[in-house]
Specification:
It is built from 10 helices and 10 strands. It is of the alpha/beta class and 333 residues long. The longest helix has 21 residues.
Protein backbone atom coordinates (compact mmCIF):
# COMPACT_ATOMS: atom_id res chain seq x y z
CA UNK A 1 0.00 0.00 0.00
CA UNK A 2 1.46 3.34 -1.07
CA UNK A 3 -0.77 5.98 0.42
CA UNK A 4 1.89 8.70 0.13
CA UNK A 5 1.84 8.51 -3.66
CA UNK A 6 0.85 11.63 -5.56
CA UNK A 7 -2.32 9.89 -6.65
CA UNK A 8 -3.53 9.56 -3.07
CA UNK A 9 -4.98 12.40 -1.03
CA UNK A 10 -4.37 12.93 2.67
CA UNK A 11 -7.43 12.89 4.89
CA UNK A 12 -9.16 16.29 4.76
CA UNK A 13 -9.51 18.17 8.04
CA UNK A 14 -13.12 19.07 7.23
CA UNK A 15 -14.98 15.85 6.53
CA UNK A 16 -18.38 16.07 4.79
CA UNK A 17 -21.05 15.66 7.46
CA UNK A 18 -23.35 13.80 5.07
CA UNK A 19 -20.85 11.00 4.43
CA UNK A 20 -21.56 7.56 5.94
CA UNK A 21 -20.12 6.67 9.34
CA UNK A 22 -18.72 3.31 8.28
CA UNK A 23 -18.20 0.98 5.35
CA UNK A 24 -18.09 -2.77 4.70
CA UNK A 25 -15.86 -3.54 1.72
CA UNK A 26 -17.10 -6.85 0.35
CA UNK A 27 -16.03 -9.40 -2.21
CA UNK A 28 -17.75 -12.72 -2.94
CA UNK A 29 -16.66 -15.54 -5.20
CA UNK A 30 -19.49 -17.51 -6.77
CA UNK A 31 -20.33 -20.60 -8.77
CA UNK A 32 -21.30 -18.34 -11.69
CA UNK A 33 -23.08 -15.13 -12.58
CA UNK A 34 -26.73 -16.18 -12.89
CA UNK A 35 -29.64 -15.89 -10.47
CA UNK A 36 -29.39 -19.53 -9.39
CA UNK A 37 -25.66 -19.37 -8.65
CA UNK A 38 -24.29 -19.51 -5.13
CA UNK A 39 -21.64 -17.83 -3.01
CA UNK A 40 -18.62 -20.06 -2.30
CA UNK A 41 -16.45 -17.58 -0.38
CA UNK A 42 -16.92 -14.15 1.14
CA UNK A 43 -14.69 -11.50 2.68
CA UNK A 44 -15.46 -8.25 4.50
CA UNK A 45 -13.11 -5.43 5.44
CA UNK A 46 -14.78 -3.08 7.93
CA UNK A 47 -13.66 0.54 7.54
CA UNK A 48 -14.39 3.60 9.66
CA UNK A 49 -15.89 6.79 8.24
CA UNK A 50 -12.54 7.91 6.77
CA UNK A 51 -11.68 4.56 5.22
CA UNK A 52 -9.30 3.22 7.88
CA UNK A 53 -9.40 -0.55 8.35
CA UNK A 54 -10.98 -1.74 11.60
CA UNK A 55 -10.87 -5.48 10.96
CA UNK A 56 -11.41 -8.13 8.31
CA UNK A 57 -13.16 -11.49 8.01
CA UNK A 58 -13.18 -14.34 5.50
CA UNK A 59 -15.05 -17.60 5.10
CA UNK A 60 -15.56 -20.41 2.64
CA UNK A 61 -19.18 -21.40 1.92
CA UNK A 62 -20.44 -24.80 0.83
CA UNK A 63 -22.76 -24.10 -2.15
CA UNK A 64 -24.24 -27.62 -2.08
CA UNK A 65 -23.62 -27.88 -5.81
CA UNK A 66 -20.89 -27.73 -8.43
CA UNK A 67 -18.35 -24.97 -7.63
CA UNK A 68 -18.34 -23.61 -11.18
CA UNK A 69 -15.17 -22.10 -12.74
CA UNK A 70 -12.49 -23.70 -10.55
CA UNK A 71 -9.83 -22.41 -12.96
CA UNK A 72 -10.81 -18.86 -11.92
CA UNK A 73 -11.38 -19.05 -8.17
CA UNK A 74 -9.45 -22.24 -7.37
CA UNK A 75 -12.12 -23.63 -5.01
CA UNK A 76 -12.86 -27.29 -5.75
CA UNK A 77 -15.70 -29.44 -4.46
CA UNK A 78 -13.21 -31.16 -2.15
CA UNK A 79 -12.12 -27.84 -0.62
CA UNK A 80 -15.72 -26.69 -0.12
CA UNK A 81 -17.13 -29.99 1.16
CA UNK A 82 -16.40 -29.26 4.82
CA UNK A 83 -17.16 -25.55 4.63
CA UNK A 84 -20.19 -24.10 6.45
CA UNK A 85 -23.46 -23.52 4.63
CA UNK A 86 -24.49 -19.92 4.04
CA UNK A 87 -27.20 -20.25 6.69
CA UNK A 88 -24.45 -21.15 9.17
CA UNK A 89 -22.46 -17.96 8.53
CA UNK A 90 -25.40 -15.62 7.84
CA UNK A 91 -25.43 -14.16 11.36
CA UNK A 92 -21.68 -13.45 11.43
CA UNK A 93 -21.82 -12.00 7.91
CA UNK A 94 -24.74 -9.78 8.95
CA UNK A 95 -22.81 -8.52 11.98
CA UNK A 96 -20.02 -7.41 9.64
CA UNK A 97 -22.45 -5.52 7.40
CA UNK A 98 -24.77 -4.06 10.02
CA UNK A 99 -25.11 -0.28 9.93
CA UNK A 100 -22.53 0.16 7.16
CA UNK A 101 -22.53 1.05 3.49
CA UNK A 102 -21.66 -2.00 1.39
CA UNK A 103 -18.73 -1.19 -0.90
CA UNK A 104 -17.86 -3.46 -3.82
CA UNK A 105 -16.46 -3.35 -7.33
CA UNK A 106 -19.56 -3.72 -9.53
CA UNK A 107 -21.60 -3.58 -6.34
CA UNK A 108 -24.89 -4.54 -7.98
CA UNK A 109 -23.53 -8.05 -8.55
CA UNK A 110 -22.22 -8.58 -5.00
CA UNK A 111 -25.39 -7.17 -3.48
CA UNK A 112 -27.69 -9.33 -5.62
CA UNK A 113 -25.75 -12.48 -4.75
CA UNK A 114 -25.79 -11.62 -1.03
CA UNK A 115 -29.48 -10.67 -1.04
CA UNK A 116 -30.42 -13.96 -2.72
CA UNK A 117 -28.43 -15.99 -0.22
CA UNK A 118 -30.17 -14.26 2.67
CA UNK A 119 -33.54 -14.81 1.00
CA UNK A 120 -32.78 -18.52 0.71
CA UNK A 121 -31.93 -18.52 4.42
CA UNK A 122 -35.24 -16.70 5.09
CA UNK A 123 -33.41 -13.69 6.46
CA UNK A 124 -32.50 -10.17 5.36
CA UNK A 125 -29.04 -8.66 5.15
CA UNK A 126 -28.83 -5.50 7.33
CA UNK A 127 -27.69 -3.31 4.43
CA UNK A 128 -29.55 -0.23 3.30
CA UNK A 129 -27.06 1.40 0.91
CA UNK A 130 -24.30 0.32 -1.40
CA UNK A 131 -21.45 2.14 -3.13
CA UNK A 132 -19.89 0.87 -6.35
CA UNK A 133 -16.21 1.74 -6.74
CA UNK A 134 -16.64 1.73 -10.51
CA UNK A 135 -19.26 4.48 -10.18
CA UNK A 136 -17.06 6.37 -7.71
CA UNK A 137 -14.07 6.17 -10.07
CA UNK A 138 -16.20 7.66 -12.84
CA UNK A 139 -17.52 10.35 -10.48
CA UNK A 140 -13.94 11.32 -9.62
CA UNK A 141 -12.80 11.21 -13.25
CA UNK A 142 -9.89 8.89 -12.47
CA UNK A 143 -7.64 8.42 -15.54
CA UNK A 144 -8.08 4.65 -15.76
CA UNK A 145 -7.64 2.66 -18.99
CA UNK A 146 -10.72 0.64 -17.96
CA UNK A 147 -12.73 0.02 -14.83
CA UNK A 148 -11.30 -3.35 -13.84
CA UNK A 149 -10.21 -3.82 -10.23
CA UNK A 150 -6.60 -4.33 -11.29
CA UNK A 151 -6.60 -0.95 -13.06
CA UNK A 152 -7.97 0.83 -10.00
CA UNK A 153 -5.41 -0.97 -7.83
CA UNK A 154 -2.54 -0.03 -10.16
CA UNK A 155 -3.65 3.61 -10.12
CA UNK A 156 -3.14 3.75 -6.35
CA UNK A 157 -0.10 1.48 -6.24
CA UNK A 158 -1.93 -1.37 -4.52
CA UNK A 159 -0.38 -4.77 -5.25
CA UNK A 160 -2.69 -7.68 -5.96
CA UNK A 161 -1.42 -10.97 -4.55
CA UNK A 162 -4.22 -13.44 -5.36
CA UNK A 163 -6.72 -12.23 -7.94
CA UNK A 164 -10.18 -13.85 -7.61
CA UNK A 165 -9.53 -14.75 -3.98
CA UNK A 166 -12.24 -13.02 -1.96
CA UNK A 167 -9.99 -11.97 0.93
CA UNK A 168 -7.26 -10.49 -1.25
CA UNK A 169 -9.72 -8.82 -3.62
CA UNK A 170 -11.46 -7.23 -0.62
CA UNK A 171 -8.10 -6.07 0.76
CA UNK A 172 -7.11 -4.56 -2.57
CA UNK A 173 -10.44 -2.81 -2.88
CA UNK A 174 -10.26 -1.47 0.67
CA UNK A 175 -6.81 -0.01 0.03
CA UNK A 176 -7.95 1.53 -3.26
CA UNK A 177 -11.22 2.81 -1.81
CA UNK A 178 -9.52 4.77 0.98
CA UNK A 179 -7.72 7.29 -1.28
CA UNK A 180 -10.78 7.48 -3.53
CA UNK A 181 -12.92 8.34 -0.51
CA UNK A 182 -10.45 10.99 0.63
CA UNK A 183 -10.31 12.51 -2.83
CA UNK A 184 -14.10 12.68 -2.85
CA UNK A 185 -14.17 14.23 0.63
CA UNK A 186 -11.54 16.83 -0.28
CA UNK A 187 -13.68 17.93 -3.23
CA UNK A 188 -16.94 17.57 -1.30
CA UNK A 189 -18.09 15.15 -4.00
CA UNK A 190 -21.46 13.55 -3.47
CA UNK A 191 -20.96 9.81 -3.12
CA UNK A 192 -22.90 7.65 -5.64
CA UNK A 193 -24.89 5.77 -3.00
CA UNK A 194 -27.72 3.48 -4.08
CA UNK A 195 -30.47 1.83 -2.09
CA UNK A 196 -30.21 -1.88 -1.28
CA UNK A 197 -33.57 -3.59 -1.46
CA UNK A 198 -33.63 -7.02 0.19
CA UNK A 199 -35.52 -9.89 -1.42
CA UNK A 200 -38.64 -10.92 0.45
CA UNK A 201 -39.56 -13.92 -1.72
CA UNK A 202 -37.34 -16.50 -3.33
CA UNK A 203 -37.71 -19.81 -5.14
CA UNK A 204 -34.84 -21.93 -6.42
CA UNK A 205 -34.81 -24.39 -9.25
CA UNK A 206 -32.64 -27.41 -8.40
CA UNK A 207 -29.20 -27.25 -10.00
CA UNK A 208 -27.49 -30.62 -10.45
CA UNK A 209 -23.97 -31.12 -9.17
CA UNK A 210 -21.59 -31.31 -12.12
CA UNK A 211 -19.00 -34.05 -12.23
CA UNK A 212 -16.73 -32.07 -14.55
CA UNK A 213 -16.16 -29.27 -12.08
CA UNK A 214 -16.71 -26.78 -14.88
CA UNK A 215 -19.35 -24.58 -16.37
CA UNK A 216 -20.61 -27.00 -19.04
CA UNK A 217 -23.47 -26.43 -21.48
CA UNK A 218 -23.66 -24.30 -24.59
CA UNK A 219 -23.39 -20.98 -22.84
CA UNK A 220 -21.31 -22.37 -19.94
CA UNK A 221 -22.51 -21.91 -16.35
CA UNK A 222 -23.92 -25.37 -15.67
CA UNK A 223 -26.52 -25.85 -18.39
CA UNK A 224 -29.44 -24.15 -16.62
CA UNK A 225 -31.12 -20.88 -17.47
CA UNK A 226 -32.51 -18.17 -15.23
CA UNK A 227 -35.76 -16.41 -15.97
CA UNK A 228 -35.50 -13.97 -18.87
CA UNK A 229 -37.91 -11.50 -17.24
CA UNK A 230 -36.35 -8.28 -16.01
CA UNK A 231 -37.56 -4.74 -15.39
CA UNK A 232 -36.66 -2.07 -17.92
CA UNK A 233 -33.98 0.37 -16.88
CA UNK A 234 -32.28 3.41 -18.32
CA UNK A 235 -28.93 2.53 -19.87
CA UNK A 236 -26.03 4.98 -19.37
CA UNK A 237 -24.82 6.89 -22.41
CA UNK A 238 -21.66 5.46 -23.97
CA UNK A 239 -18.85 8.07 -23.91
CA UNK A 240 -17.06 6.62 -26.95
CA UNK A 241 -17.84 7.03 -30.67
CA UNK A 242 -19.00 3.97 -32.60
CA UNK A 243 -15.99 2.58 -34.51
CA UNK A 244 -18.16 0.37 -36.70
CA UNK A 245 -18.85 -3.34 -36.94
CA UNK A 246 -17.01 -6.10 -35.18
CA UNK A 247 -14.75 -8.12 -37.47
CA UNK A 248 -14.29 -11.85 -36.87
CA UNK A 249 -10.90 -12.66 -35.37
CA UNK A 250 -10.32 -9.13 -34.13
CA UNK A 251 -10.94 -7.46 -30.77
CA UNK A 252 -14.02 -5.58 -29.70
CA UNK A 253 -13.42 -1.85 -29.49
CA UNK A 254 -14.85 0.64 -27.01
CA UNK A 255 -17.88 2.40 -28.46
CA UNK A 256 -19.14 -0.59 -30.43
CA UNK A 257 -22.93 -1.04 -30.31
CA UNK A 258 -23.84 -4.46 -28.91
CA UNK A 259 -27.35 -5.96 -28.77
CA UNK A 260 -28.57 -9.14 -27.07
CA UNK A 261 -31.31 -11.55 -28.15
CA UNK A 262 -32.91 -14.55 -26.45
CA UNK A 263 -32.09 -16.37 -23.21
CA UNK A 264 -28.63 -16.05 -21.71
CA UNK A 265 -26.93 -18.22 -19.11
CA UNK A 266 -25.61 -15.16 -17.32
CA UNK A 267 -28.37 -12.87 -16.06
CA UNK A 268 -28.98 -10.36 -18.88
CA UNK A 269 -28.62 -7.35 -16.61
CA UNK A 270 -25.20 -8.50 -15.43
CA UNK A 271 -24.12 -9.24 -18.99
CA UNK A 272 -25.14 -5.73 -20.03
CA UNK A 273 -23.31 -4.26 -17.03
CA UNK A 274 -20.14 -6.09 -18.03
CA UNK A 275 -20.43 -4.76 -21.59
CA UNK A 276 -21.02 -1.20 -20.35
CA UNK A 277 -18.09 -1.47 -17.94
CA UNK A 278 -15.87 -2.49 -20.86
CA UNK A 279 -16.84 0.70 -22.72
CA UNK A 280 -19.37 -0.80 -25.14
CA UNK A 281 -22.72 0.72 -26.10
CA UNK A 282 -25.56 -1.63 -25.12
CA UNK A 283 -28.35 -1.20 -27.66
CA UNK A 284 -31.93 -2.37 -27.19
CA UNK A 285 -32.60 -2.79 -30.91
CA UNK A 286 -30.83 -3.66 -34.17
CA UNK A 287 -29.98 -1.05 -36.79
CA UNK A 288 -27.39 -0.59 -39.53
CA UNK A 289 -25.14 0.94 -36.87
CA UNK A 290 -25.15 -2.17 -34.64
CA UNK A 291 -21.66 -3.62 -34.32
CA UNK A 292 -22.54 -7.05 -32.96
CA UNK A 293 -25.50 -9.23 -31.94
CA UNK A 294 -25.04 -11.70 -29.09
CA UNK A 295 -27.40 -14.70 -29.11
CA UNK A 296 -27.23 -18.36 -28.14
CA UNK A 297 -29.80 -19.26 -30.81
CA UNK A 298 -28.87 -17.68 -34.18
CA UNK A 299 -31.58 -19.72 -35.93
CA UNK A 300 -34.41 -18.60 -33.63
CA UNK A 301 -36.01 -16.22 -36.11
CA UNK A 302 -36.47 -13.42 -33.55
CA UNK A 303 -36.85 -9.91 -34.91
CA UNK A 304 -33.31 -9.01 -33.81
CA UNK A 305 -31.79 -12.06 -35.52
CA UNK A 306 -33.79 -11.39 -38.70
CA UNK A 307 -32.72 -7.75 -38.81
CA UNK A 308 -29.11 -8.65 -38.06
CA UNK A 309 -29.07 -10.96 -41.06
CA UNK A 310 -30.72 -8.31 -43.24
CA UNK A 311 -28.12 -5.71 -42.24
CA UNK A 312 -25.18 -8.12 -42.27
CA UNK A 313 -24.56 -7.56 -38.57
CA UNK A 314 -22.03 -10.05 -37.11
CA UNK A 315 -23.49 -12.61 -34.67
CA UNK A 316 -21.66 -14.44 -31.86
CA UNK A 317 -22.85 -16.61 -29.00
CA UNK A 318 -22.61 -15.75 -25.31
CA UNK A 319 -19.49 -17.83 -24.66
CA UNK A 320 -17.58 -16.14 -27.50
CA UNK A 321 -18.75 -12.73 -26.31
CA UNK A 322 -17.46 -13.52 -22.82
CA UNK A 323 -14.03 -14.23 -24.29
CA UNK A 324 -14.10 -11.01 -26.32
CA UNK A 325 -14.96 -8.97 -23.21
CA UNK A 326 -11.66 -9.98 -21.64
CA UNK A 327 -9.65 -7.83 -24.05
CA UNK A 328 -11.55 -4.82 -25.41
CA UNK A 329 -9.49 -2.35 -27.45
CA UNK A 330 -9.51 1.25 -26.16
CA UNK A 331 -11.32 3.88 -28.23
CA UNK A 332 -9.38 6.25 -30.46
CA UNK A 333 -10.01 9.56 -28.73
Amino acid sequence: MLEDRATAVSSPTQWPAAYPKGYAVVDVETTGLARDDRIISAAVYRLDERGEVEDHWYTLVNPERDPGPVWIHGLTSEVLEGAPLFADIAEEFAARLDGRVLVAHNAVFDWQMIAREYARAKREAPVRQRLCTIALSKELGLPLPNFKLESLAAHYGVVQQRAHHALDDARVLAEAFRPSLRTAAAGDVRLPLLECRPLTEWSDRPVPRQSSGGYGGQGGYGGYRPSSWRPSRKKPACPHPNPGRYEDGKRLKQGMRVAFSGDTSVERELLEDRATEAGLHVASSISRLTSLLVTNDPDSGTSKVVKARQFGTPIVDEAAFGQLLRDVEPANE
